[in-house]
C-alpha cells in the first residue's frame, strides 16, 4: 500500500477553558479560573490517498480540533502532523502556503463561511488569484464558469450574493471554492448538518462524483451514521480525545468491536436485524477537564475492570485489519 497522505502521530491538544467552562458546578472554586481542556489525548491515525475517512463520535470528543490542527488553525501541544511525508504542524504561515492549496476545508455552515459582501464570482476569483496568480482575466472567467457548472450551478450564479441561494446551493459554492485551487485533500466538518435531508443526498452525491473524477481524499466529520455507512471508505471512532476504533466501513458496521462503537451502532435501526436492542450506556459522561488515567470510556463501559481504570489502551491491529484500543477486546471479555 502507498504511504498515507496524512499521518497524525501521538497528537495532543490542550486548551485553556473558555469562559463558559470557568465555574461549572463540578469545578471546585480553588482550581484555576481557566482549567485545562484535554481535547486530544494521543491521536494516532492515517488518511490514505483517495479514501474518505469518516470521523465519528459524540459532541466534544475532539473531531473538529483534529481538523483544525490539520488545516493549521491550531498547533498541537505534543505529537506531529505529516502531509505527503512532510511535517506540517510546526510551519510558519508563509511556509504553510503551498499546503493551503493542497488542503481545503468545507464547513458546516456555508453561509457563515462565505463572505456575504462578495458575489460568487468575487469569492471564487479571490481563491483562484491566490493560487493561480499568473492567470489572465479570460482564463479566470472561463475557469469560474466551468467550476460552477461542475458543481451544478449556472453562469448566472456568478453575480449573485450568498444570501440569494438556498443552503444546498451555498454548500455547492463552498465546494466550488475548495475545488478552485485543485486540492488533494478536502476536510468536510459536518457539511450536511445544516441541510434538508433531500438536499443532503444531492451534496453527498456531488462530493462522491468529484472524488471519482479528481481522485480527491476526504476527511469527513459527521454525527450521522447513515451518511458514514453510505460514504466512508474507513471510519475512525473517537471518544473523549482518543481514537477507540478504526476499521473499513464494512468491517465496522458488520463487526464493531469496541464497546463504545457497539453502543453507537446499536442506535441505528437495521432492516437486516430488527431484533437488535439498542445498547443504553449508563454512567456519567466524563469531562475533558480531567485527563483520563486509564481508558476514557471505562466509567460507562459494562466490560471495564481494574486494568481499564489504570492503563490506557493502545490501538491494536485485529485479524480483520481493524484497529481497536480496548483491554476487554484484547482479553476476550464480552457482553453477558
Ligand atoms: N478554542 C478552544 N478553547 C477552549 N476549549 C476548546 C476550544 N476548542 C475546542 N475546545 C474544547 O475541546 C473539546 C473538543 O472540541 P471539538 O470542537 O474538537 O469537539 P467535536 O467533537 O468537534 O464536537 P462537536 O461534534 O460538537 O463539533 C471540547 O470540550 C471543546 O469545548
TrEMBL record:
One of its GO terms (biological process) is transmembrane transport. SMART domains: AAA. GO terms for molecular function: ATP binding; ATP hydrolysis activity. It holds the Pfam family ABC_tran. SUPFAM superfamilies: P-loop containing nucleoside triphosphate hydrolases. Residues 9-265 form the ABC transporter domain. Gene3D superfamilies: P-loop containing nucleotide triphosphate hydrolases (3.40.50.300). Keywords: ATP-binding, Nucleotide-binding, Transport. Belongs to the ABC transporter superfamily. NCBIfam families: oligo_HPY. This is Peptide/nickel transport system ATP-binding protein. The lineage of its organism: Bacteria, Pseudomonadati, Pseudomonadota, Gammaproteobacteria, Oceanospirillales.
